[in-house]
Automatic annotation (TrEMBL):
InterPro entries: PBP/GOBP, PBP_GOBP_sf. Keywords: Secreted, Signal. Its main location: secreted. It comes from Aedes albopictus. This is Uncharacterized protein. Belongs to the PBP/GOBP family.
Length: 149
């Protein structure tokens, strides 16, 4: 009986260790599906054309964007769970999302962009401006790995 308990304990420990090592990161297919879901949820709230949404998806954030574009970016950030209560990009929340969700090859460049752009929001008063220009900074920092719905 004692041997069975030891074997079961050993199996449990090995199972827990295996589960701990499983990478919970999303695949690119899952990321793209999530982006599409966010886009479908936010886009109808704003007067934006499909062409404008596609520009943003490609990382082309205009410096002269209208309020609709800026607030669309804020809606996406809200859905992603990366905003503070004040409507600013949260360094802590965004870092946690990067670590938990992005594939390994995107984590380092995403963290670099976050670090480079973490203070952009301080230049603006409006929460839509804060988010839009923070996201624009990230897109401009490294468009090759930038992902946006």
């Amino acid at each position: 009986m004692k041997t069975v308990r030891i074997v079961m304990l050993l199996v449990a420990v090995l199972l827990l260790e295996t589960l701990r090592r499983i990478d919970a990161a999303m695949t690119m297919k899952q990321i793209n599906e999530s982006m599409e879901t966010m886009r479908k949820a936010c886009a109808p709230k704003f007067d934006l054309t499909e062409a404008t949404l596609n520009e943003l998806k490609a990382g082309n954030f205009r410096p002269d964007a209208n309020k609709e574009m800026k607030c669309y970016a804020k809606c996406i950030a809200q859905m992603a769970g990366t905003l503070t209560k004040k409507g600013e990009i949260s360094f802590t929340k965004t870092s946690a999302q990067i670590e938990a969700l992005l594939p390994t090859e995107l984590k380092a460049p995403a963290k670099e962009a976050l670090k480079a752009c973490k203070d952009v929001h301080a230049e603006y008063k409006d929460s839509c401006d804060k988010v839009y220009y923070s996201v624009k900074c990230a897109a401009d920092f490294n468009r090759d790995v930038f992902i946006f719905p």
